[in-house]
Specification:
The chain is mostly helical. The protein is built from 24 helices and two strands. The protein is globular. About 35% of the residues are buried.
């Protein structure tokens, strides 16, 4: 596996954090033709600017974006819908800027249009309603409604110029979203399936009389689960109760974290200590002890004046204390399970469901793998083909083995023991003093709507 492409990761992160107004600024920087300034701009905006300079059509721009691993232009975003119209109709950059000003006014007047998840709590019924309303049914299966493609076709069908385009935006504000809606849809769809599997597992356990306690522990993602503990319910009553239950974003993230061996929130130093502590790390051979001590000093310069023995003794004691804390926090039968966990992950899950933050490609992939778990492809699990289909639907590039992270995902999907493969990869990165791809990735989430409202001076 190749080394991580840092520039690609930076571009992905910057694209994810850019809002509409930042996008305007990025294109303006590119169109200044100042080479030094342009080099600092994420690749996606440079390619869009190149489209204007070279007079590309929409297909050519999207092809350029896909070739460089960037997201294609997304029709259900006000800002990008304007770009799509511009490239479809051969508008120059100044002409697009003028159009953008009037589109921004429409966006500001439209405000928040979402009809889903209007309550502070998220119930399973509300989640399922969102998924069903955004899906069509084919042979008893829910499939995506392809609204993004529909909007793009409608924009392409505009024949009477910019005034018709503005009218289309004004009359269809409900079709647009502040986030990449298709990624949100797939996140919610597979989350819904994950929760339904938990329900089905409990019903099966109650019906058979085996494994009820374990199945009940799996229902911690539902906040009404305590009612099942206090009073006996029939399977039908239990399902009805859970369907009306509030879902716990914290427990979902906790389970996600646990699924990936907690490696999404543990840095390389802790993983390295775990790797060396197969036995007592104080009993390591001198060479390995020296390697470990050197790595720890590179991470914490306050240890630079200590001997190898002192460095390792201090870290061994800290690790022991942390393990005792984690035993209490992550104990499956503990009363305070997950009580001290980082609230960032919990808030990110809630905000992704509610459409407050964009779901970047890496985060979407990792959650889809988690939601489908270790199911076989015929049991609703995830295959490379299905994942490629989802990514393409979202406007993301399909998996490309020349990309480091994608190579890992392909190998993970094809592995007979995916969790073992993950553990080996994370450990390998730690030994190179690097954090793995998944390290606290959920912290990249940011409210683009909040930033937009600040700039425009309107209420969030």
């Amino acid at each position: 596996m190749k080394k991580l492409n840092q520039e690609s990761v930076f571009d992905t992160l910057m694209n994810h954090l850019m809002g509409e107004t930042d996008g305007d600024k990025m294109l303006e920087e590119c169109m200044s033709f100042d080479v030094k300034r342009t080099k600092k701009i994420p690749m996606r905006y440079r390619l869009i600017a190149l489209g204007f300079v070279q007079g590309m059509n929409l297909e050519e721009v999207n092809d350029k974006l896909a070739q460089r691993g960037c997201e294609k232009l997304y029709a259900r975003n006000f800002w990008e819908a304007g770009l799509i119209y511009a490239f479809l109709n051969g508008l120059s950059y100044p002409e697009w800027k003028k159009l953008q000003e009037s589109c921004r006014d429409i966006r500001r007047r439209a405000g928040e249009q979402s009809q889903y998840f209007t309550e502070s709590k998220i119930t399973f019924r509300a989640l399922r309603e969102y998924v069903r309303d955004c899906s069509d049914e084919e042979n008893g299966r829910l499939v995506t409604r392809h609204l993004t493609m529909l909007v793009e076709r409608q924009i392409a069908g505009i024949r009477d110029g910019e005034e018709e385009f503005r009218r289309f935006l004004s009359e269809n504000t409900g079709l647009f979203s502040q986030v990449r809606e298709k990624a949100r849809y797939y996140f919610c769809k597979y989350l819904c399936g994950y929760l339904e599997d938990k329900m089905a597992g409990y019903v099966s356990a109650v019906t058979s009389g085996f494994g009820t306690e374990d199945a009940l522990a799996e229902l911690m993602v539902f906040k009404n689960v305590t009612k099942l503990k206090k009073k006996k319910h029939t399977p039908e009553e239990a399902v009805e109760l859970l369907q009306e239950s509030t879902i716990s974003s914290g427990e979902i993230f906790d389970a996600f974290n646990y699924f990936y061996f907690e490696y999404v929130s543990i840095n390389w130093v802790e993983i390295l200590l775990e790797y060396y502590s197969v036995g007592d790390i104080l009993m390591l051979p001198a060479r390995q002890k020296g390697e470990l001590a050197e790595a720890l000093r590179s991470y914490n310069h306050a240890l630079s004046n200590l001997t190898d023995e002192e460095v390792i003794s201090r870290q061994a004691e800290e690790m022991k204390k942390k393990e005792e804390e984690l035993d209490a926090i992550y104990s499956l039968d503990g009363d305070n399970r997950g009580y001290q966990r980082n609230r960032s992950g919990e808030n990110a899950v809630r905000d992704m469901i509610k459409g407050r933050v964009d779901i970047d490609r890496t985060t979407l992939i990792c959650f889809l793998l988690f939601f489908t778990g270790e199911k076989g492809t015929e049991e609703g699990g995830m295959s490379r083909e299905r994942l490629d289909e989802i990514l393409t639907e979202c406007g993301f590039p399909a998996l490309r083995e020349e990309d480091d992270f994608d190579f890992f995902v392909v190998q993970y999907l094809q592995s007979e023991e995916p969790k073992l493969y993950l553990m080996e990869e994370v450990t390998r990165y730690a030994r190179n003093r690097e954090n793995f791809y998944l390290y606290e990735m959920y912290k990249d989430a940011k409210s683009l709507e909040e930033e937009f409202c600040k700039v425009m001076g309107i209420g969030a």
